[in-house]
Amino acid sequence: MRTAYRVLAFAIAAMVAIQAGAIGYAVFAQFNWIEKGGTFDKAAFDTGAPGTGAFMFHALFAGALLLTSLVMLIISFFAKIPHGVRWAVFVLIATIVQIALGVLSHLLA
User: DSSP for the chain?
Assistant: First the structure.
């Protein structure tokens, strides 16, 4: 169980890096698209403008990250790592807050 906990912790760190790379690519691809005369609107998503796939990947990958954080919390109860449950709860809360901020940014913008 300790190994599973450790693997999940490293997997979550890697998943966060992948998400950061995806959103970075999406934003810079959109900036390049706009500099070349493209527009950033709903039609850009429908036509498959550069970076739109990365935006969707970033959003969907958040669900996988949430699921992995939840599995890490469950495993933390059996791993018997000092303060392991506490850190797993912190990771899960941080993941939930990140997803909530992303959703709320669309609702409040």
Answer: -HHHHHHHHHHHHHHHHHHHHHHHHHHHHHHHHHHTT---SHHHHHHT-TTHHHHHHHHHHHHHHHHHHHHHHHHHHHH--TTHHHHHHHHHHHHHHHHHHHHHHHHH-
pTM confidence score: 0.82
pLDDT in tens, 17-69: 999 999 999 999 888 888 888 777 777 777 777 888 888 899 899 999 999 99
Taking each helix axis from N to C terminus, what angle separates 84-108 and 2-35, rounded to the nearest 10 degrees? 20
What's the one-letter identity of residue 66?
Answer: L
Which has the closest alpha carbon to 105: 49, 55, 33, 70? 55
Amino acid letter, 49? A
Contact by Cβ (8 Å): 12, 72: yes
